[in-house]
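note to self: dont lose this again. the chain is below, predicted strucutre after it. 208 aa total, dont forget to put it in the shared folder this time
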Amino acid sequence: MNVLIIGCGKLGTRLATGLTRSGHDVSIIDNDATRFEMLPDDFNGLSIMGNPIDQDVLQSAGIEGCDCVVCVTDEDNVNIMAAQIAREIFGVGKVLARILDPVRAKLYEESGIDTICPTALASHAVYAYLFPDEQAENQIFHLGASSAELISLPCEKFMRGMKIREIERERQMLLIGSLSEKSRFVSAFGRSEIPDDAKTLIFMNMIH
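---
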């Protein structure tokens, strides 16, 4: 798959790294060139410095030939504008925008833009931890055109310090975070290993 990532922060860096190591073609855009220093030495994708809502910059990153655009900058407005440009001007089939504000995320989803909201994910994760025996529908939420369920599992001692990609491969689910003994939520985005104080792991399982 040919993927264009907008934003080379912690999440963008992790996505770019994981996708390239899985054999996908990746381009990443950021308006701050120093952020590309977070990319590992084995990253073999294309990094472009520039305004992610500038059509010339998007074209130089290969948006016209990509299969998917993922917008994960730290600014909701930039992510939405980049997603709209990718979908409406360049006709990209799969476009996803990270939106921190749950209310705005829901509004944009209703307008046809697929979004992912870390704030909502964290909220659902805490709920899944506090009420693990609740019925499944209480832990199901919409993610763009699909739905997903959050599954909380106890973190065994041998799992602490384990590589996140290893446990994701073993469980066949995406790890979105963990909860410590003191109920502190730690997002898995931007991390490579499970925290040493993790008590509960929160996975996301897609429902098609």
